[in-house]
Amino acid sequence: MTGSNVLRGWKKSIQAWKNVKRYLREAAREPSITFFSEGQPYHPFLHPVISNLRQTAESPILYITSDENDSYLLTPPQNVQPFFIGKGAPMIYLFTNTNTRLMIMTMPDLNKFHIKKSVHPVHYVYIFHSIVSTHMVYRQGAFDHFDSVLCVGPHHKAEIRAAEILRGLPEKNLINHGYGPLDTLLKNDAPIARNGNKKTNILIAPSWGTHSIIETVGEKLVSTLLAANFVVTVRPHPRTRQINPDLISQLSTQFGSNKSFRLDTDTSHFDSLLTADLMVSDWSGAALEFSLGLQKPVLFIDVPAKVNNPSWQDLNIIPLEDNYRSQVGEILSPEHIDLAPEYAARLLSNRGNFARNIEMLRKTHIYNLGKSGSEGARTIQGMLQDSLKTYVKPPVP
After folding, report:
1. Alpha-carbon distance 266 to 6, whole Å?
2. Cβ–Cβ contacts within 10 Å for residue 111, how many?
């Protein structure tokens, strides 16, 4: 690490500590609501609720972020106070000492690792950053320490309740919420200009980890689709960019000179989903957003499922991301990647049939379709009012 990088790191840490102290004073002044964002990629999940809440909330809305380039820091919305808190000791200290009434976050595993619950009475609320089920992709106990969970659909409620019964846990407050990114896609489901390019556009949007399609067959998949005269956009998962940036660089180096290849590293917007005719994915939650939001088919490469909970089968519930695949697309073995263009052509020719299945699926599996933001804001406002019945103002730090 160069001297300039060390100096920049120190400046960021000092800034984060100052912001943490400022935040703690603001949170303790009066009953407050706090939203925590790990960074810009989590805006699509939090923004719809914040946008609705800030229009009606009488209490301060505080927004803490680990991302120094968070758009809320650069352009704060009206009635929202943003604070950059970094990712290390300042953030850990803040969580342990916050006096906020409600802490709303998309990060699971509360109280399991470095992010602990506060020494003060705080009501913790979880907002999902994926439609996928709770018991296979997430670690066991990922939601145990939340007081309320804003569920995307009935599958989340059924899984969490079943886990509570199986493991003898107290019941959490499970709310019929919905899914903000899906609502955003429904509002913006209009073709984006392709600048005269009439080729079929295929979006590769995988999950992350050692079994994802980028990690296993990504190079061959891109090469095969480009050779079949498709436009190919690769949209890596944010975690892949963090833990394996060299892999993304390799794809860019190998295919960057091809005019039909694109790399989309900004998952905070939906342009690449809107321009795509078809998605190729594995077990990614992005496939659910794409199919349910835009009624477009998905080609699933059948790599091993991402399993972070070895005991997931104890619930006897098939995860949604497994159960729906054959209803919104087709499944292709990674050993037969050379057949991907043929599968893609067949899916596109039958898009109308899949659209009917998808419409039924989203009615069955998604709460408050088109209005999750307003429902989430109303719920959070109600939680705050309930908390005020027993509220005792703490001393300001």
Report:
1. 27
2. 13
> Over the range 2-17, which residues count as b (16 or more CB within 10 Å of their CB) and which as e?
eeeeeeeeeebeeebb
pTM of this structure: 0.93
Nearest alpha carbon to residue 282 among 109, 179, 132, 107: 132
Pick from 340, 198, 204, 323: nearest CA to 262:
204
The one-digit pLDDT tens for each residue of the chain (397 residues) are 566 777 788 889 999 999 999 999 999 988 999 999 999 999 999 999 999 999 988 888 999 999 999 999 999 999 999 999 999 999 999 999 999 999 999 999 999 999 999 999 999 999 999 999 999 999 999 999 999 999 999 999 999 999 999 999 999 999 999 999 999 999 876 555 555 567 899 999 999 989 999 999 999 999 999 999 999 999 998 888 888 888 889 999 999 999 999 999 888 889 999 999 999 999 999 999 999 999 999 999 999 998 999 999 999 999 999 999 989 999 999 999 999 999 999 999 988 888 888 889 999 999 999 999 999 999 999 999 888 776 666 665 5
Is residue 202 within 8 Å of residue 225, measured between CB atoms? Answer: yes
328, two tokens? 């919104």
Query: What is the spatial order of strands in the sheet that 298-301 belongs to?
Result: 261-263, 231-234, 201-204, 278-281, 298-301, 329-332
Query: Alpha-carbon distance 226 to 87, whole Å?
Result: 39
For the chain, report the end-to-end CA distance as a whole number of angstroms.
Answer: 36
